[in-house]
Design goal:
Helix content: under 10%
Shape: elongated
CATH architecture of one domain: Beta Complex
Number of helices: 3
Largest sheet: 7 strands, antiparallel
Radius of gyration: 48 Å
Amino acid sequence: MPRPIVVAGADTTRPVPSGTPSAPAGVPGAPTRSAPGFPGLGGQRPAEQPAPIPGTANDPTPRGNSRITGYVVDSSITKAIEFASIALYSKATNKPVDGAAADDKGKFTISRVTAGDYKLLITFIGFNTKTLDNIRVERGQTLDLGVVKLAPQVTTLDEVTVTGQRALVEEKVDRLVYNADRDALAKGGDATDILRKVPLLSVDLDGNVQLRGNSNIRVLINNKPSTIIAQSVADALKQIPADQIKTVEVITSPSAKYDAEGSGGIINIITKKNTLQGLTLNLDGGVGNRGSNLGVNGNYRKGKMGIGLGGFGRYNYNVKTVTTFDQLTRTVGNEFRTNQVGEGVNSGGFGRYNLNFDYDLSKEESITASVSYGARNQLNQQDFTISRFQNSLPLTQTGRNVDTKDLSGTWDVNLDYTRIYKSDKEWSVSGQFSQNNRTNNFDAELSSLLNGTGTVTSL
């Protein structure tokens, strides 16, 4: 028997003849069945719509017909606070039910408010939160809160510390400054190790210093010449501990206040001044395959007066040197060759000891005095062998042994008065006494190992 089919939108039924094939699903004109609960949708669920946000224009929920308005201003300068946040809380549930944001003039409006009791919270970054309690809204009422003032949020700090650090290298108008006290690796060495890191300066293995390739330089300590510097720059730098150097100033174009000596430039080594109250003690040392050093510095400061006592010693050992010299001379029918080979060993000690005193007469005036003693005991042994040949045949061979002993002791006494003015100017008076005692012993021994016939003459 044929079955009746209900067609959506039709009000009649008709039988389907037996044997008639049914149309495949998805083909236009195919009969559809309505899914239970979803008439006319062919069994498909409708797309879910996002839930509306309460208190917005998209919220279709019927609400009240009352309004709350007002202005938000800064209490300190009576200026509108733009875009402040306003939240409306129900007094019954203590939950937010609506909200708004102030416009560029500080005005806010909360519409469609139902009658009831509320509280209002007004917030903005940098201001204290304002709470308005016991707000009652009647049906159909427009409640004007007027001007609502927010107080700026003030935080009281106990102490603010601003710490600034100088760069390792500073370029000033007339000089380049290397801040050695900012170098964490400047420990345990001497002034030579510091100068190797200073731009524009070069230091060889013997401690000789050059400024842009020029060795005609002048070295000052705390803006003053020193006896130990005058006799040997290389040796003097070994007597100054690295941890006592504050800055190194390189002056490439000295002004008229400096002497004509040192046309290549001036190196000014500024040492540290103790400013810590009480007693401080510093001990530094270093050990290497060419030498060792030890330094001790003690300082005591009470009020405006400071006293410092320090010593630094360095000993170099087994510093070997090898030199070779070869000369070839050709004449008609002959060829002469001279060969020289030398070996040397250097050893010795250096020391520098300081006693410092300073007193601050005022914030602008100070008196400083210092006594320094430098000692040196340098030993140098060299052995040379000089061989002469004619047409590859040995002619003579000479030995030369040289022993050098260099002893010195220097004294430097300084007394200075300095006054600093507000215009960043300085006026000072300096007095200096220097004395140098030096002894140099030189012993040389010559020996002939071969005579002109190529036979041994002496050993």
